[in-house]
Amino acid sequence: MIVLFESARYTTETLRGFLGERFYRELNASEAQIDYVGYYYQAPASHSALLLPKVFLKDGKFAGLSPTELLDLQLTDAKEARQRLYEAGKSEFLFRFGVWLYQAIKIFGQRHPDTSITESADLQHITQPEGQQYLSELEVISSLLRFHHDNPTLFTFIKRYNSSQRHQVSWPRTVQKKIPVLQNGQPLYVETINKQKNIDSDEELFVLFFSVLEHLNEQYGFKTSLSPLYATVTKGEFQKLLNGQGVRRLREIRGKYFSDKMRQLWQLLYAFFARAERTKTQQGTRELLLVRDFDIVFEDMIDALLTDSEKPLPRKLKEHKDGKALDHIYEYASLLTPEDTIYHIGDSKYYQEHSDFGETSVYKQYTYARNVIQLNIDLLNDGKLAMPLRYRDNLTEGYNITPNFFISALVNDTLDFKDNGLSQRGSTLKPNRHFSDRLFDRDTLILQAYNINFLYVLANYVSKNKQETEQFRQRAKQQFRARLMQYLAENYAFWKVTPQHDSLETFVTTHFQLLNGKMYRPAQFEKAILVALEKNSSSQNITEALRSIALVETYSLA
């Protein structure tokens, strides 16, 4: 299997050998770039191709090699390439990842049946005797490896059982079918029939199985353990099996298996050898499942993690009138008081490691926030904003803080599928604002950025573990809120101000010019307002001026 990378540049002539012209883009007279991610094979090529997302390239390299260096090594010295990948801890990982990526693209197509970014072919042809759907190379090999992993004692048990049956006489069958010799009036059976009937067929199936595993170890650099109880066939014999003998022999012994496990193994081996024979005899056979614009798939993966599909939000919250579409939005606790809620807004960024957020992306994200704020203010003005959603306080004319974040793909060095790796990416980005020291102004917007383990996102998307997804979702939402609250606490001092002599309405009207954009009244504050002032700014003396007419208390976000 050849490993290629999305967005990498290759010589056009090299790509023509095993990738259809539709799936790369010529940049000049000699170079081309791949814009797809997924799996591709077309007979009679000797190589299938795994097109990896660009996030796997660290400083432009994979396993210490550039994309072109890795490709050249795979084509000129496949054994050395497999060894290089194995030593880098990426050999078996690549195949496992390929299977999960393959499944993820299929799931994306199921979730979005009208999408135009996926390409598939020849994945549903019926070719097996019992009507089982044709499986791709990735699916067949993955199933064989999984069978080996899930049945560690089966092969030993069958060997012991068959060996024991060779020495146990089946007396009912012996009496029925053999003629005894009388000796001293007693029947003596010179020939007996043993209980074992399927010694050869059982063991032959296991010999084929371990011969296939041995072949896969050599081809892909796997380290699958082989049972010493069963001798594998020679390379020459195995090549004959690939050329058609494997299919013919499996058909001959097909009816000799009755247990579910043995029938399952027969089916897997038949799928393997049938595919091998088909690719050698059918020149036009193609197996492909590819997707371009993989950032859209990544966005869907993140959305499946963060948002609850069983609680859909109004469509206009994601698809805005100006043609912009939000990646992620969900209702969660306000940053000021947990009793109030507000929409948290996220945007997926499918970048290579160390890529920075451009000014255009940041500007777009602030625009998304403004659109969401306006949509909710329109509902508020019409009396249709459902509580506890709270975007503006009519008395102070202060606006609640709208949480806003980027979330980017990152592949960790351990290639771990289980660790989510969710962490803040650098410091909080520069806030957007029209006026300084006006936290509760509608144009004051704060944006944070996070990294997440791409492999965790992929595994979760494919496995559909609802419990794990929900646990992550709640932890992530808490983390996003807590980190933003931490930023606010580090940069602002919050005060609960309760008037001592005037009514709250009179107090706000009298001091409106002084506190405009600095004050906000949460729903739980009946006779007080919340004032936020930037630390180390001249406005801090405002609280001193208010102490003579109001009770001024420190307020901590919770």
How would you summarize the topology of this molecule?
Elements: E1 2-5, E2 9-11, H1 12-16, E3 24-26, E4 31-34, E5 36-42, E6 49-52, H2 67-76, H3 78-87, H4 91-111, E7 118-121, H5 137-150, H6 154-165, H7 171-177, E8 181-183, E9 186-188, H8 199-220, H9 235-252, H10 260-281, E10 286-292, H11 294-306, H12 315-318, E11 328-333, E12 341-349, H13 359-381, E13 392-393, E14 398-399, E15 404-410, E16 423-424, E17 448-453, H14 454-463, H15 466-491, E18 492-499, H16 504-510, H17 512-515, E19 519-520, E20 529-534, H18 542-546, E21 550-554
Parallel strand pairs: 1-6, 12-15, 15-17
Antiparallel strand pairs: 2-4, 3-4, 5-6, 5-10, 7-10, 8-9, 11-12, 13-14, 16-17, 18-20, 18-21, 19-20
Helix pairs in contact: 2-3, 4-14, 5-10, 6-8, 8-9, 8-10, 9-10, 11-14
Output mean pLDDT: 84
Strand order of the largest sheet: 1-6-5-10-7
Give a count of the beta strands, DSSP E runs of length 2 or more. 21
Number of helices: 18
In angstroms, what is the radius of gyration? 33 Å
Ends apart, CA distance between termini: 53 Å
The domain count comes to: 4
Uncertain regions: pLDDT < 50 for 5+ in a row?
122-132
Q: Which of globular, elongated, flat, extended, rod-shaped describes the shape? A: elongated
Strand content: 15-25%
Helical content band: 40-55%
Provide the structure class: alpha+beta
Q: Which sheet architecture does the biggest sheet show?
A: 5 strands, mixed
Provide tags for this entry.
558 residues; alpha+beta; 4 domains; five-stranded mixed β-sheet; 21 strands; elongated
